[in-house]
Write a structure and sequence with these properties.
This protein is an alpha+beta fold. The protein folds into three domains: 177 residues, Histidine kinase-like ATPase, C-terminal domain (Heat Shock Protein 90); 126 residues, no CATH class; 134 residues, no CATH class. It is 39% helix and 18% strand. The protein is built from twelve helices and 15 strands. Strand 9 and strand 10 form a beta hairpin. It is elongated, with a radius of gyration of 34 Å. It starts with 6 loop residues before the first helix and ends with a helix.
């Protein structure tokens, strides 16, 4: 049997749709190595560092961890094999043995370095430029083994300025793809803050409670100390977020839930951050969507669970996570979703009522905002109309028409205020405003013809002004502006008398 050389392309550029995904793969491997070091007593439970460095001058990215490293005996076997991971069945995050190849498609050279004791370090180098050249020619190496013999080299190298135990990935000569996002430290940090196993920020008040609940349920967090060009990476959740420019929304409370497996064990644990549900969260908040995580690594995109919501758009209003505990619920090879089987179907069925409950909150909030908006529009219409009447500068027929219109607007506001679904505080504020409007309308009864600004004009001239003022109101698309214009006209007339 021959394994064709094209499998290399399938396992690199053909495997991932977003180039930034390669950083998730390497951080995931680093986190597994740190977990092994912790289990073997090499690191304390709160130790474990991963440093990602972007050197734009040389177009080089290095990812270095202080985990267990790889011994000389296992180095070649583990790094020169394809799809043969020693992690399978050990409960580690990666287990297919392909993630380490994810950078092949985007660099001129992919280098792995490690050591586990004093002395020289081991270095395995993929010449990716030559790899791509050989892949293009028809008479190139016929299979994977022959191809790798041409492009992969192994060496022992003096380890200058390297720790006694480490593992490092070097991406050299990084390609310019999609706005050069692979060399953008800010974009890399934003991406990893969402997908990597890092701690919540200190100023997120629910962070410790969430981590405590997850840990108590058996979720392996395995948080690492991750930096990108020296900047500490933290989860993006905060107590408030900006829904739109100048409009800040606060999280009100956190809700936890458990999902039960087919054999009545805990399959997953999740949490939701409830807020006012005033609309879809912007992408730049980095927190929208009910997201899935396995081994505290995000699976797929924020929209992965859209279809569980009666209206998929409501997932973009949601803030929360589902941490999978059941080892039988397995991410697919690309880690952009899950393998479709009975265990994942059960998880989805158990999660659907949670999504429906969030959707009800979204609909309730939407209905409340619609009611409040209806009341505010009706009151604004009434206030504008009463403002015209208070100018006391229109004829009798227009007066009757305007006062009738104001009464109808007030009636609309009262009808909307009587509907259910408006919180007590905004309801009270609107009712107080409604009472003030009604008092203004009632106060019009005190106006007399002699107090009319046009009263001193000759009757014929007064009728002309009344007609002009009524035309201004009828023809202006901006009623507030029309009212202001009439006020200036009346003021000018008063000054000339």
């Amino acid at each position: 049997m021959v394994v064709g050389r094209d499998v290399i392309e399938l396992l690199s550029s053909g495997m991932y749709t977003d180039p930034l995904t390669i950083y998730r793969e390497y951080i995931q491997n680093a986190a597994d190595s740190i977990d092994r070091a912790r289990a073997d007593g090499m690191l304390a439970s709160d130790e474990g560092e991963v440093m990602l460095r972007v050197d734009q001058s040389t177009r080089t990215v290095t990812i270095t961890d202080n985990g267990a490293g790889i011994s000389k005996r296992d180095f070649v076997r583990r790094l020169a094999s394809l799809g043969a991971s020693s992690k399978r069945g050990l409960g580690e995050r990666g287990f297919r043995g392909v993630g380490r190849l994810s950078g092949l498609a985007y660099v001129q050279a992919l280098v792995f370095r490690t050591r586990t004791a004093p002395g020289p370090m081991l270095e395995l180098r993929w010449d990716c430029r030559r790899l791509r050249a050989l892949m293009r020619i028809a008479d190139g190496p016929p299979d994977v083994a022959a191809l790798m013999a041409e492009v992969v080299t192994l060496a022992e190298v003096e380890a200058q300025d390297k720790p006694e135990r480490f593992f490092e990935v070097e991406l050299s000569g990084v390609s310019r793809v999609r706005g050069d996002r692979l060399m953008n430290p800010a974009l890399i940090e934003q991406y990893l803050s969402q997908v990597a196993p890092v701690a919540f920020a200190d100023d997120f008040s629910h962070g410790r409670e969430i981590e405590a609940v997850l840990a108590a349920a058996g979720i392996r967090l395995g948080n690492i100390g991750l930096t990108v060009n020296g900047a500490i990476v933290r989860r993006p959740y905060r107590d408030t977020f900006e829904l739109s420019p100048g409009r800040t929304v606060a999280h009100e409370d956190v809700e936890f839930f458990e999902l039960i497996s087919t054999d009545e064990r805990v399959a997953a644990v999740g949490w939701l951050l409830h807020h006012a549900y005033e609309g879809a969260l912007p992408n730049d908040t980095l927190i929208k969507g009910l997201r899935a995580r396995v081994g505290n690594i995000q699976i797929g995109e924020p929209n992965l669970l859209d279809e569980l919501f009666p209206e998929p758009r409501f997932n973009s209003w949601t803030v929360g996570e589902v941490h999978v505990l059941d080892a039988r619920i397995v991410p697919n090879g690309r880690r952009d979703g899950f393998e479709q089987d009975a265990h994942f179907s059960n998880l989805a069925n158990r999660l659907a009522p949670i999504a429906r409950a969030v959707s009800r909150r979204c609909r309730t909030s939407s209905a409340q905002r619609r009611n409040v908006r209806d009341i505010e529009v009706a009151l604004s219409d009434a206030e504008t109309t009463i403002g015209k009447l208070e100018q006391n500068a229109v004829g009798d027929a227009a007066w009757i028409s305007l006062s009738t219109s104001a009464s109808r607007s007030i009636a609309r506001a009262e009808l909307s205020a009587g509907r259910e679904g408006i919180d007590e505080r905004p309801r009270q504020q609107l009712l107080e405003r409604l009472e003030r409007v009604k008092e203004r309308l009632a106060g019009l009864d005190a106006l007399t013809p002699s107090a009319q600004p046009l009263a001193r004009l000759p009757k014929a001239q007064r009728r002309i002004y009344e007609h002009i003022i009524e035309l201004i109101y009828d023809c202006s698309p901006d009623q507030a502006g029309a009212t202001a214009l009439v006020s200036r006209i009346l003021g000018r007339l008063a000054d000339t008398r």
